[in-house]
């Protein structure tokens, strides 16, 4: 099978397309505290391309030909990873012939049915996200002829839970606001200082639960959020080079402190201090560059109006991470329906706004995909007792 039709042969192609879509989505959201799922929005467009594979106007938003995106959508929905629940649905009042054509093209896991009421859509969102998203993000009414949606959700426990530390150790403007922060334990977490071509030197922390890795990246306070998010995607993809601590000056940097012990064992080591955080966001997806207008027109050429939005939630704490996003699009028609030496150590301090990206570690079509991403601007206290979702059976 050719690489144009087999998505498993082009994982980098898909990761690049989703990362580029993430730049576009987060760029429009701005620098306020938020969480989003660029993959959830991208996947909805790819499902629309499955239904109407000739929708060439979707290529710009998808970052690839629509038929290739549709192939990726089929692969992703057919084999979700252990850490991420994934679902999509299409509901429509259009004529049976058109629905029949769509049904034959859509991924087999996408159900097709009549447009339900708002309460039923709310129930679908809650069921597909384990109760994390309780309300469907768009409203339907008597003029709605089509609803297309995706849902993504994860709930993991860290393999190595964080320790805690006094908030004053965090440094920066958040230190005085927090009684306790998260401190990396001796094992199971990875910290380094990397260099990005736009963001410059950044501090990186990453840790893992079953099937999901969450990467946090912070730059100097004056580095634009878009550059830090780009660095976070590179770090999550394993393409952000690390700097040796011996190449950095001793003392305080923009978000770390480097020290040297001439008497200790040789080498270098980083630890990190981060706040706990949670976010509950709703995003309007009506900007033309996000592609939903093109998707609506491809599915219903006689469309009168359409709306698209995403509801996303996340919580990051001492014991684990949970996140979910429901992306919805509704189409309305008001008319007729149709190395050696001294030792160096660094403490990385996430004490001002920073970026977070969660990627899948399972092998398969989801490997390396950024499922959720966030800009953390509102830290929360990390209690010594229970912080974060932890495992839920």
Automatic annotation (TrEMBL):
UniProt cross-references to InterPro entries, sorted A to Z: Serpin_sf (IPR036186)
Matching SUPFAM superfamilies, A to Z?
Answer: Serpins
Its protein name is Serpin (Serine protease inhibitor)
Q: Which organism is it from?
A: Nakamurella endophytica
């Amino acid at each position: 099978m050719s690489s144009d039709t087999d998505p498993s042969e082009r994982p980098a192609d898909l990761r690049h397309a989703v990362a580029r879509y993430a730049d576009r989505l987060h760029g429009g959201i701005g620098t306020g505290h938020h969480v989003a799922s660029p993959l959830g929005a991208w996947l909805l467009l790819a499902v629309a391309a499955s239904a109407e594979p000739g929708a060439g106007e979707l290529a710009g938003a998808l970052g690839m030909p629509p038929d290739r995106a549709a192939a990726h959508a089929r692969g992703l929905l057919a084999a979700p990873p252990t850490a991420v629940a994934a679902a999509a649905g299409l509901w429509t009042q259009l004529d049976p012939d058109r629905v029949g054509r769509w049904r034959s093209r859509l991924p087999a896991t996408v159900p097709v049915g009549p447009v339900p009421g708002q309460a039923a859509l709310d129930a679908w969102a809650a069921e597909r996200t384990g109760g994390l998203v309780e309300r469907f993000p768009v409203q339907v009414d008597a003029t709605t002829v089509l609803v297309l949606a995706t849902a993504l959700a994860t709930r993991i426990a860290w393999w190595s839970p964080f320790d805690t530390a006094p908030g004053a150790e965090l440094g920066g403007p958040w230190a005085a606001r927090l009684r306790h922060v998260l401190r990396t334990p001796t094992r199971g977490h990875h910290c380094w200082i990397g260099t990005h071509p736009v963001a410059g030197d950044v501090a990186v922390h990453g840790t893992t639960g079953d099937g999901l890795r969450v990467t946090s990246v912070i730059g100097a306070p004056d580095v634009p959020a878009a550059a830090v998010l780009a660095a976070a995607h590179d770090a999550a993809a394993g393409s952000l080079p690390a700097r040796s601590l011996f190449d950095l000056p001793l003392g305080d940097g923009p978000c770390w402190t480097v020290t040297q012990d001439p008497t200790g064992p040789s080498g270098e080591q980083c630890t990190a201090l981060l706040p706990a955080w949670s976010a509950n966001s709703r995003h309007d997806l009506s900007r033309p560059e996000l592609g939903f207008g093109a998707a609506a027109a491809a599915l219903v050429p006689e469309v009168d109006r359409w709306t698209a939005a995403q509801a996303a939630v996340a919580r990051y704490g001492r014991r684990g991470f949970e996140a979910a996003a429901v992306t919805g699009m509704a189409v309305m028609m008001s008319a007729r329906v149709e190395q050696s030496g001294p030792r160096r150590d660094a403490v990385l301090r996430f004490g001002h706004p920073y970026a977070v990206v969660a990627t899948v570690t399972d092998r398969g079509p989801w490997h390396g995909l950024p499922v959720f991403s966030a800009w953390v601007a509102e830290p929360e206290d990390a209690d010594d007792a229970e912080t974060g979702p932890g495992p839920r059976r």
